[in-house]
């Protein structure tokens, strides 16, 4: 896995890219979960969203490590 990404001469940590990708996936997933009624069964929505983000981030990093190696 590359630990740095060259973006127009600026070196960025690869985790920064994965964080942005995960945020986009989460932003698309949250309205779907709301329409499906999942949030009716959730005690604390902000904690659920944070846990969902962390799980999605783990999945994105895992998938990316398999693609780049």
From TrEMBL:
Domain of life where this protein originates: Bacteria
Transmembrane segments: 7-30, 50-68
UniProt keyword terms in alphabetical order: Cell membrane, Membrane, Transmembrane, Transmembrane helix
InterPro entries with a match to the protein in the record: DUF1656
Protein name, as recorded: DUF1656 domain-containing protein
């Amino acid at each position: 896995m590359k630990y740095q990404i060259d973006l127009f001469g600026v070196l960025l940590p690869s985790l920064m890219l994965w964080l942005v990708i995960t945020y986009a996936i989460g932003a698309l997933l949250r309205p779907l979960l709301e329409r499906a009624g999942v949030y009716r069964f959730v005690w604390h929505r902000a904690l659920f969203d944070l846990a969902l983000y962390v799980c999605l981030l783990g999945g994105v990093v895992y998938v990316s490590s398999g693609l780049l190696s």
